[in-house]
Design brief:
Chain lengths: 143, 287
């Protein structure tokens, strides 16, 4: 009886752990996968390079996330820059200088793609919500 | 002389009036009926003093009067000297009550309480009201079989529901409590560890499933298609995780919009100072 109770407790704990974040985790995981696919493709990483590169990138990414709540924006940017400088050497060891430069460029580009995607979705939302009326109003302003 | 005559005349007038009112009084001889014995007032003080000296012993109480008083009163009552008066009064009021006399009317028959059921009128009443109840009469209906309570525990045990498990409340060995506490703590610790571990896994890019998914995207060349399915909230969460100010990035992205016709022309700013505000409003980045 007691063992059964314990098992039930354990099971409930696991289930709740497993069930709680899947929605969020799945959504973010999708973007993470897109990111990995994008960087792999843009940097033309082969399997050997990927095996070395992504573990370094994971710890780099965690350090960047760690400073995201810095309230002073300049300090935050400085901290991120310091992390980039710190990891640059390790990236260069795997990718070489040129592709490391390219990684930082493509990393920013991916985020820009997301921002563009977000802007498009919101504009689409806006038009769907308000209909064509507002655009006509704008045309008047445009002469 | 004249005044005497007038006086005599008024006297005879009074007499005549008296004769008319009462001839008897008028006929009385004129003698002084209120005559005192000779030398009455001379002897009066002596007489009074004589009475006063006598009266000093007038209010004496017979010896032992109060000692015998209660006894005397009781004997008087017992003799019925005063009862006679009471009885006469009672007789005048109610001859029925008076006829009872001294008899004790509240006497109970012999063995009344031991045979009380027979004397209660209710018994007869019950008999007429309910034949069943009357039939029960004096029988003790709540009898307990002999030895009932001695065998009760055994009877209950015999009758108990054997299909259900009996949960005993006896105390367990002390070690059990520690074992239970340890087990609960272990469950909590494992849960916390898992939740923390999971966090690292989901937030890092190192998760194996992420690489697998990335591989699939590359193989199927479905980057753009997958990109279009991600949600607003997911993008915001991802970007904020990297420390990006999403609102600022959105505004900045406007300058790169290929559809430049959506942006106001240079001349628009001259005619309408709110041109930029309006375009920003229509884009509504605050969604």
């Amino acid at each position: 009886m007691k063992q059964l109770l314990l098992l039930t407790l354990l099971f409930t704990g696991f289930v709740s752990q497993a069930q709680q974040p899947p929605g969020m985790a799945n959504r973010e995981q999708k973007i993470e996968a897109l990111y990995v696919a994008y960087i792999t493709k843009e940097l033309n990483l082969n399997e050997d390079e990927a095996k070395k590169f992504w573990p370094i990138h994971t710890s780099y990414d965690q350090e960047v996330r760690a400073v995201r709540n810095e309230s002073n924006e300049i300090e935050r940017q400085q901290a991120v820059l310091n992390i980039k400088k710190k990891y640059q050497e390790r990236f260069v060891n795997v990718l070489g200088q040129d592709r490391t430069n390219n990684f930082f460029i493509k990393d920013a580009e991916f985020r820009k793609k997301l921002v563009d995607q977000l802007r498009k979705m919101r504009q689409q939302n806006q038009q769907n919500r308000q209909g064509p009326g507002i655009r006509q109003g704008m045309k008047q302003n445009n002469f | 002389m004249q005044s005497i005559q007038r006086h005599m005349q008024s006297n005879s007038n009074i007499l005549n009036e008296l004769k008319e009112l009462s001839p008897t009084l008028a006929g009385l001889p004129r003698t002084n009926v209120f005559k005192l014995p000779e030398g009455y007032f001379e002897e009066l003080s002596g007489q009074i003093l004589l009475h006063v000296s006598k009266s000093s012993s007038t209010y004496s109480v017979p010896e032992g009067y109060f000692d015998q008083l209660s006894g005397q009163i009781l004997s008087i009552i017992a003799n019925g000297q005063q009862q006679n008066e009471v009885r006469e009064e009672m007789l005048a009021l109610s001859s029925t009550v008076a006829a009872i006399g001294n008899a004790n009317v509240f006497r109970l028959p012999d063995n009344y309480f031991s045979n009380i059921e027979q004397h209660i009128a209710v018994v007869a009443e019950t008999a007429s009201a309910s034949a069943m109840v009357a039939a029960i009469e004096k029988a003790v209906t709540y009898t307990v079989p002999e030895g009932y309570f001695e065998q009760l525990a055994d009877t209950i045990m015999a009758k108990k529901d054997t299909t259900r498990k009996l949960v005993s409340m006896k105390s367990r060995p002390f070690a059990w409590r520690y074992a239970a506490a340890a087990a609960i703590t272990a469950v909590m610790a494992v849960s916390v560890w898992f939740s923390l571990n999971k966090n690292v896994e989901t937030t890092g890019t190192a998760s194996a499933s992420v690489y697998k998914e990335a591989q699939e995207i590359l193989v199927t060349n479905s980057f753009d298609q997958e990109m279009s399915t991600i949600s607003d909230a997911a993008i915001v969460a991802f970007l904020e995780d990297k420390g990006q100010n999403v609102e600022a990035a959105l505004v900045a992205s406007l300058t790169d919009v290929a559809d430049a016709s959506k942006l106001p022309n240079a001349t628009d700013y001259m005619f309408n100072e709110n041109a930029l505000d309006e375009i920003l409003k229509t884009l509504e980045f605050n969604d």
